[in-house]
Each structure stands twice: as structure tokens, then as C-alpha cells.
Amino acid sequence: KFADYLGIERAPLQWDFHLTAAELNCVEKHLFGVSASFAVLFIGTRWQSKQWFTGQMAECAQALRHEYDLDIVLLGGKEDREIARQAVAESQVKVTNLAGLTSLREAIGIIERAKLAVGPDTGLMHIAAAVHTPVISLWGATSPERTGPYGFEDLIIQGRAPCVPCNRRHCSIGRICLKSITTVQIAEKV
Length: 190
Fold this sequence. Notes:
Elements: H1 2-6, H2 21-30, E1 38-42, H3 54-68, E2 71-75, H4 81-90, E3 95-97, H5 104-113, E4 116-120, H6 123-130, E5 135-139, H7 144-147, E6 156-158, H8 176-179, H9 183-189
Parallel strand pairs: 1-2, 1-4, 2-3, 4-5, 5-6
């Protein structure tokens, strides 16, 4: 919209990520034992209000494995390791936990190879859109109309709560917007 206001012609957006041979080698090592058909779950956010629950992550992993025969890979930063550990513990399927173990560029290579990605409003969500990996994005505190994943607007799931979107970093009512998002809704988008 900013470009429109300035009268700049629209052109298709393109991101052109190129990983080095060493980075691609690291991606291969990270994905050792993961089938070519896998889904990435983004498990971390910078805002507490955008964080989905470990039970939701585990249920999503189980549904993707049982209903779509996809292996599951968790991605996030070092600060997300405990959430990832809890999600793995709650899941009843094999999950490859790479939280805190990849560089950002290695995460790009992993996401690029995934069949799909699922998670809340995060930088990794935008990376998935940039590398054309279908991304099912989960929204509560923030607005997908403002910062949704480019090109994958049809895969947005907006949580329900009277205050959505509140645009607050911390939620005082238990993130009911994110709790309202179900595995059935995610499966429908898949």
C-alpha cells in the first residue's frame, strides 16, 4: 500500500535465497532420518501472546503424521528449546526437534524442502512464504490482514476472542484466541 501511495508500479515479489554448499550440507545433516515428505512446525514467537500451546503442537504433529503421513520437524530458536521439549514429550509420534540447533540460513533450507509449514505469526512463517512453502498460519493477538504471509492468505486461521486482534505482547486472559484454534481447522487447511 505504501508503494501504491507513492505511485510505484506493482511487480511480483521475489525473494532469492541461495545457501552455500556448507549450509546445504548442514541442512542434509539436520534432516538425516527425516523423509522427503515432512512438515515444519514453528514453535517460538517473540511475543508471549502469539505463542501456541505445546498440546496444540503435539496434536498437530500427530494429525499430520497419521492423516497425511508426514514426518514432523520442529524449528525455533535457542530460547524455544524448553517449549519444543514439552511438545515432543506430549506428542505420540516421532518428532525431529531442531529448536535452537540451526542457523537462520539453515532453517531457510529446511523450510524450503518441507511440504508445508504450520505455526503462529513469526519470522519463520514469513520465510516459508518467501520460499513458496505452503504455510498454515495461526493468528490471535496480531492481524493477518496487516502482516500475514504473502501469497498464502487462504491458509490463515484466525483465532476467536472478543479482543482479537489486541496487538499486545502479553495476554492477561490465557491466550483464548489461540486456544480456540483446533487441529481440525489445521487439517482442513492441509
